[in-house]
Write a structure and sequence with these properties.
By secondary structure, this protein is α+β, with helices and mostly antiparallel strands. The chain is 28% helix and 19% strand. The strands form 3 sheets. It has a 4-stranded antiparallel β-sheet, covered by helices on one side. Strands 5-6-7-8 form a 4-stranded mixed β-sheet.
Length: 259
């Protein structure tokens, strides 16, 4: 049975701006938006998947956008979106673009951690509950994306034997990121494998495993993903409020992340 899609308020196309853009946020096309999508020349498999999405009003995910154009007024006119298809449609990754005015107003988030529990094997439950509690103590409200998140949202089969469990982990600063990474490291070893991103308040995101290696001095830089860019950063200037000293043994000792 298909689960209902996230509730998003609708609006008439062009009546008001579309949703604020942020990587991994969920948006739903308005009626005219779906009509435009379905009218495009897709192959049979992609067309069947998109028809199901449109019929059930399932969300699409905001992907990384092209670099901002020279004219600021044109910056948000077209939105790049993604649809990671379930097993039924070969796990296709369908990319598309829509005018922002053809998206419903507002945006939704991926499911909270608690929603994933029914998808986990019983032996994994204790470690999962402990991780939820530890992150909650840190004030980190994690969200589940990837295969687990999409299976919850759509009710369609996404998971396979080697599916990672992907987490979006909001953090305020470097110290908060270090604390969250310590919690994740303590939970390692239990299936499924934990993956995901630390997401800072300005939208900058880093894979938590890359952050751990960088802070421990095992990597010279870290890939920082933003709405319109992905850049290898070697200094700490991109992190608001972080002291200049980082990356070497002193930072690793302070963070407690050295291997």
């Amino acid at each position: 049975m298909t689960s209902p899609s996230p509730s998003l308020p609708s609006h008439a196309p062009g009546a008001e701006p579309g949703p604020a853009l942020q990587r991994h946020s969920l948006v739903t096309p308005a009626e005219a938006g779906w009509a435009q999508v379905l009218a495009r020349p897709w192959d049979d498999e992609a067309a069947a998947c998109l028809a199901h999405w449109a019929a059930h009003r399932l969300p699409l995910v905001v992907a990384r956008q092209p670099p901002a154009p020279a004219e600021p007024a044109a910056c948000d006119e077209t939105v790049t979106l993604g649809l990671p298809a379930p097993l039924r449609w070969s796990r296709r990754r369908i990319a598309l673009q829509l005018p922002r005015g053809l998206l419903q107003a507002g945006a939704a988030a991926f499911p909270a951690m608690a929603a994933v529990a029914p998808l986990l094997a019983p032996p994994a439950a204790p470690a999962w509950y402990a991780l939820q509690q530890n992150l909650a103590r840190l004030g980190c409200t994690a969200r589940v994306y990837g295969s687990h998140g999409w299976q919850i949202l759509t009710g369609l089969p996404y998971l396979h034997a080697t599916s990672d469990l992907d987490l979006l982990l909001p953090v305020a600063d470097a110290q908060a990121a270090d604390a969250v990474v310590r919690c994740l490291a303590q939970a390692e070893g239990a299936a499924p494998r934990l993956d995901g991103e630390l997401v800072f308040s300005d939208g900058a995101a880093v894979a938590w495993r890359e952050w751990r290696a960088w802070r421990a001095g095992a990597a010279s830089g870290v890939l920082v993903k933003r709405l319109r860019s992905a850049r290898l950063e070697q200094g700490s200037g991109w992190i608001g409020g972080m002291e200049a000293a980082e990356g070497g043994a002193a930072a690793a000792a302070a963070a407690g992340l050295a291997a």
